[in-house]
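Researcher: Here's a chain I'd like modeled. Treat it as a single chain, no partners, no ligands.
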Amino acid sequence: MRMNPYRERLTINGTSHRERMVYAAQDFANRHAPESIAYKEIKIDGKQENALIISTNAVNEKIIRMLPGHSFLVGQIVEWRDSYWLITEKDNDDDVTTRGRIEQCNRQLTWQNPYTGKIVSRWCTARKPYYSNLDEDPKIVTSSREFKVQLPYDEETALLRLDKRFMVEIVAGEPKTYKIVSIDTITERFSREDSITGFLVINIEQDEYSPDRDNVELGVCDYFVIEDPVLPVEKPDSKIPDSQISYKGAASIKLGGSAKAFTFSVKGTDDLECTEWICDIPEDYEPYIHMEPNANYARLRADDEATLEGLHFTLTAKDEQTGAAASLLLEVTA
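Model: Modeled as a single isolated chain. Structure tokens:
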């Protein structure tokens, strides 16, 4: 029997009163948002979007409200009117629209990937120092002020370590260099299924410029060149099957926790008895990370050693028969 046409019409925009109210609110936002003076064309991590950018009491902070069906993640960068803004807050109450807070970026940090030498740049916010003193010696005078810096958390910024140096600016022809003195990898990061989003909070203080090690032209401290890098060469007719390393939860292992399982799989291949597992761990930390490989299956655990917290390392699995391989960036968490 066909449902009463009147009842059918009632359920077009939702089967409950609440669902119909949400739909009505979303429809209202879609129709009237373009009429608002706050309606702007923006980019989020390079993707074109439209959103409401609403002023606050602070000129370098704004409220961002997306249109229904569109969202963002904390730690992404918003490009608007030739300026860059870091998304620092997101309201999880997104039934109608997603809203959050953005802070204007006033610096761009540049450095090199420690493994590949690739030059990396990220927009960030740099705020006023916590204190102001001068450290003097016969050769140089430097400020011991610490600046709070916020920058997106991703596979590149995850590799930053204490004492990493940056050339923040050049004043009157003189490079001003700074080094990391603390890294907060916990407060502003959020675990979402199998990934971690958010941003890093680091403190930097002024450091001595080194003409021998720092490249002013590129704006990179401790510049290095990888001699004769070994690059993979693939024959035109070679066919390497798709492969992956799978696991449960986030891409991390716990300090002092039980061993975590990782499974290597190759599309169209069941025989993976010749799997080779490799952990690329800094030498100082090797004694504290333990791996138990067994064909395409491996278990990893970390000792309860405080210095391991925040450590990132690469886990690689390779099938010697097909040449298929997969790598995974892991983090040690508390």
